[in-house]
């Protein structure tokens, strides 16, 4: 009996091929969106965490923070990106971090953007001011030359280390070591070129030009503070304990008693990973929820189509009942049609979603991103299950209406 019902459902859909294909396509696009969103979420998570791993698990960061808000809050992020400038991280704080027993090296950094001139060309370049220990803290490899020394930083030497891409833009195939360029009219000598590093926290490190922190503070920006401090621990297993101790020490430097008044935040890489994963998962769930709403709207469309189908096939329903079909037979036939439409759309959506996810993967990898291609079995089963749920939810009422039709009335009206 079940096989006969399926045959009848298939025959009914074949008689309305265009309608069936369009309905399946509508559901398929929604399911494809779910697959793409979940795959993209995993890809973005892998990309961001891969950038975070550039710093290593034994690094710890002290960054500026807007007082009276949580370090992970949107208020802090908005405040720092809309003009709030915190100027309280100073040389004393760098020394405090550097002198902690579990810190192997520490470095204060500043960031800016300036016009750089060389051989008659002027280019806008992102400038990073790093301390001499940055090469060790971030495990920087050099393609040419060397990183600057403590003596050069302390003496405000006008030396520079170029990112790999900056070197190509400024000097091409020429040897950059020993060449001189100008920032704000001041000559800087190239002492090193970094190996290719890619992106870190969405900043293309290869397109940056690095100066000694003190040189950049005094001779370029005219400031006495840093934007953040990055340090490498001797033993990463004591990261949380180290973070707590550094927090108390820097509070003492800043004369802060109330933790709510903190104008800085100490972050371990584990904390940063957890925060980023939560943000990415939250955004992925939000986008999937929006797509699910569109699928529900598509389910309403299926209900309307099934109502139209019932109205168009009253004679068929009446005739089947007249020759012995039960109410359950009629209901299961129409419900089977709804399920075929939605599950068929789900399968189509999974295939489309996988193809789009593959295209995104190849585009991302071609752009040099460390993108993870991931379509989990859970997302496939979830998509198929939700497709079936939509079919049952929005197909059962029209199916019951078809089952309750009076065969005499149905045949008489026709």
TrEMBL record:
Give any GO molecular function from the UniProt entry: transmembrane transporter activity
Q: Where are the transmembrane segments?
A: 20-40, 283-307, 338-364, 371-397
Q: Where is the MacB-like periplasmic core domain?
A: 21-248
| A Pfam family it matches | MacB_PCD
Quote the subcellular location field of this record. Answer: Cell membrane
Q: Which UniProt keywords apply?
A: Cell membrane, Membrane, Transmembrane, Transmembrane helix
Presence of keyword Transmembrane helix: yes
Domain ABC3 transporter permease C-terminal, by residue range, is: 289-407
Its GO CC terms?
plasma membrane
How does this chain sit within the bilayer?
Multi-pass membrane protein
Q: Which family does it belong to?
A: Belongs to the ABC-4 integral membrane protein family.
* PANTHER family recorded: ABC TRANSPORTER PERMEASE YTRF, MEMBRANE COMPONENT OF TRANSPORTER-RELATED
Q: What is this protein called?
A: Multidrug ABC transporter substrate-binding protein
User: What organism does the record attribute this protein to?
Assistant: Candidatus Magasanikbacteria bacterium GW2011_GWA2_46_17
Q: What is the lineage of its organism?
A: Bacteria, Candidatus Magasanikiibacteriota
């Amino acid at each position: 009996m079940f096989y006969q019902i399926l045959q009848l459902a298939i025959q009914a859909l074949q008689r309305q091929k265009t309608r069936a294909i369009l309905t399946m396509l509508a559901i398929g696009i929604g399911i494809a969106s779910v697959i793409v969103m979940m795959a993209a979420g995993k890809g973005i998570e892998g990309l961001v965490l891969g950038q975070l791993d550039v710093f290593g698990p034994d690094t710890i960061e002290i960054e500026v923070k807007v007082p009276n808000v949580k370090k992970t809050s949107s208020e802090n992020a908005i405040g720092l990106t809309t003009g709030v400038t915190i100027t309280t991280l100073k040389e004393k704080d760098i020394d405090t971090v550097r002198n902690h027993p579990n810190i192997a090296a520490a470095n204060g950094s500043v960031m800016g953007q300036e016009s750089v001139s060389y051989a008659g060309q002027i280019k806008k370049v992102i400038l990073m001011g790093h301390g001499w220990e940055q090469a060790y803290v971030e495990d920087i490899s050099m393609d040419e030359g060397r990183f600057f020394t403590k003596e050069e930083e302390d003496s405000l030497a006008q030396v520079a280390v170029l990112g790999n891409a900056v070197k190509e833009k400024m000097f091409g195939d020429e040897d950059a070591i020993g060449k001189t360029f100008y920032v704000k009219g001041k000559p800087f000598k190239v002492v090193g070129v970094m190996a290719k590093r890619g992106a870190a926290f969405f900043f293309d490190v290869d397109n940056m030009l690095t100066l000694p922190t003190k040189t950049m503070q005094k001779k370029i920006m005219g400031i006495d503070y840093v934007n953040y401090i990055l340090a490498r621990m001797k033993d990463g297993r004591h990261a949380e304990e180290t973070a707590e101790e550094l927090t108390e020490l820097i509070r003492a430097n800043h004369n802060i008693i109330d933790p709510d008044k903190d104008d800085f935040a100490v972050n371990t890489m584990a904390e940063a990973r957890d925060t980023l994963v939560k943000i990415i998962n939250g955004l992925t769930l939000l986008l999937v929820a929006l797509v699910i709403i569109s699928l529900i709207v598509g389910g309403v469309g299926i209900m309307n189509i099934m109502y139209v189908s019932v109205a168009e096939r009253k004679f068929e329903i009446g005739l089947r009942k007249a020759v012995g079909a039960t109410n359950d037979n009629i209901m299961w036939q129409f419900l089977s049609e709804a399920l075929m439409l939605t599950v068929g759309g789900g399968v189509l959506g999974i295939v489309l979603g996988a193809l789009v996810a593959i295209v995104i993967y190849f585009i991302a990898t071609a752009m040099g991103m460390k993108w993870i291609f991931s379509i989990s079995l859970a997302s496939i089963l979830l998509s198929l299950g939700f497709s079936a749920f939509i079919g049952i939810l929005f197909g059962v009422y029209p199916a019951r209406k078809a089952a309750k039709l009076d065969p005499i009335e149905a045949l008489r009206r026709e």
